[in-house]
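Lab notebook, page 48
Experiment: co-folding of the full assembly
Goal: obtain a model of how the components sit together before planning crosslinking
Operator: M.T.
Materials (sequences as entered):
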Amino acid sequence: MSVRPKAHSLGPKPPFWRDRAKRALIFQALLIAAVVVFLLYIIGNTQDNLAARGITTGFGFLTNTAGFGIVQSLIDYSSQSTYGRTFVVGLLNTLLVSALGIIAATIIGFTVGIARLSPNWLIARLASGYIEIFRNIPLLLQIFFWYFAVLRAMPSARDSYSLGEVIFLNVRGLYVPEPLFESGFGLIPLAFGVAIVASIALTIWNKRRHEATGQRLPAGWISLGLIVGLPLLVLFVTGVPVTWDVPELRGFNFRGGITIIPEFLALWLALSIYTASFIAEIVRSGIQAIPHGQTEAAQALSLPQNLVLRLVVVPQALRVIIPPLTSQYLNLIKNSSLATAIGYPDLVSVFAGTTLNQTGQAIEVIAMTMAVYLTISLLVSMFMNWFNARVALVER
Amino acid sequence: MTIQHKMIEARPAPRSTVGPIAWLRANLFSGPVNTVFTLIGIYLLYLLLTPTIQWAFINADWIGTSRDDCSREGACWVFVSARFTQFIYGLYPRSELWRVDVTFITFAALIAWLAIPRLPFKRWVALATLVAFPIFAYFMLYGGHFGLPQVPTHRWGGLMLTLVLAVVGMVGALPIGILLALGRRSQMPIVKSFCVVFIEFWRGVPLITVLFMASVMLPLFMPTGVSVDRLIRAFIGITLFQSAYMAEVIRGGLQAIPRGQEEAAAALGMSYWMRMGLIVLPQALKMMIPGIVNTFISLFKDTTLVMIIGLFDLLGIVQAALSDSRWLGFSLEGYVFAAFMFWVFCFSMSRYSQYLERKLHTGHKR
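Observation: model returned without errors.
Model output:
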């Protein structure tokens, strides 16, 4: 055996590059220096380039007149509005299609995911066919398919498809009746609010009573009845203060009603169907993650089937489902930016597209767009983490 | 008392539990609700499949060269066959197509070697795929050396460009992703927060804004007068975006390696890079192959977005062909073809990753 020199026990202090703490400090200082140098280099180049092209930096352009129209806006907008307003219009359109997409994708995804676990062989196969087809085709291709191959191939306004002469579908979009509210309609939202408060109170009371006496009312059904029934009751008592503005063909186009533009329809369909295929797999794996013994144990306690699901399976499955579901919601919101490819006026399309081209303010525009998505991402994941923590508490 | 000396022949299972009819009864018609579902399912299938098969096969036109050969009763695949070379190679010079073929056959052979578990020398083949092949591919595809004429990148397109973008994005993102993942688990606070911010930033924004940024802002970042090829801009954007996702996948793998492994290596006197390079990373990467394949699938699908910044990948070139005045009105055929191509690639990759998951899972089971 060779005699090894003693490590750093009592001998002279090791040189500083062998000292972990000092080495870490030096390494981090170098990293900061590299990043700063890199940023300074980029900023310097950018300033030179901007000066050479005669572009002034700053957010002053937001108050200039935009001068272009937008086919769909949730707030008042005209070509005389400012670039700042186009930003808000685009943002609202992004949020609209994302919110409706999340709702639809969740419904389809849960249905398909549960169908995939169905004991019925055919239903399970149909569900997995859906998943395998839509998950493996690029979203942009699906958007194009719905937009160019389906909705752009619809007949002209004169030959529209119609559902009971009330809803019409043609190459210009989907026309649905618009409700016009008369005086006295305000009572209905009020009744709706009252019903919700009453259901929450009922649920809490029912839970207390359950813990005290072991008896429980079917609070879910009663709440549903309240929330649906009370507004309906008020609606009929007040004599239905709603009239419908049904779209009508006048000349070459429809008048009245609400027009849903084909760009929105295509984007919404594609986003929902695509994301649903991922959600379905998440739901399936969430349900499969619950050991079968849990269900059996709950049945052995003679819990009825619906309570087994509600008290044992679903709360635990949700814990597995929610984190990946959050990322799918985020993906959907981010993917809504593909709107720009078919001209749905979302944030990227009207702001990072048209506004950027007209003003040339690349840095400000891209930074604002990215900041919006970052904020949404962080807010959604914060909310979902909070919700996740709440659900996780159920486990104890 | 009689004693049975002969073995009684095994009797067949009761008819009601085996055979196709019993199977049907158990899986399709086990109750009234199930029967209704089955009937709805059959009706749905009938509704979907009959017109599709009629359109795509029975009434379809297969042979011809121009739109006059289309009977218009079903799909006209003439459109696809007439444009096939363009869909696959883009505007790559027709006389140079063999270069693309050779490159991709080489690549397919390397990948097949890595994917089939029985073949030996995996480490060397992996090294060749990650280091030697990109250089080879560059000289083959771009040319300009060894007597091969140069092919500018604006002539690249179609499936070839889709594959190039996906593979370059992946090969570029892997090392950056590894470094970011290691950095995120580092004990140095500044390194750690730098990596966290970097990862969360790229993961929080849509790829399309990253591509916009790469195509609009990158030229501003360069010294005046230096221009960057549009394809390179797309590469940079995709690589940055993808490396953040890759980092998270690898972080998952690193977390799955028991701490004792690294401690044992440290006790043997190994340095940080030796511990990571020889002990932790090989195990983590092996465990994360399915995750990496999944990232690759999503990257493969995401490459379609480059058409928004003016590059013609497979979808982009199909879309461009659809607006050709000689072939107006064949969008369905074009999209079905592109969808089928993407589907075949993505589906086989996802099947492979599931196979790997099962195979690797048993390896770690106790």
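Interpretation: The mean pLDDT of chain A is 86.
Next step: discuss with group before ordering constructs.
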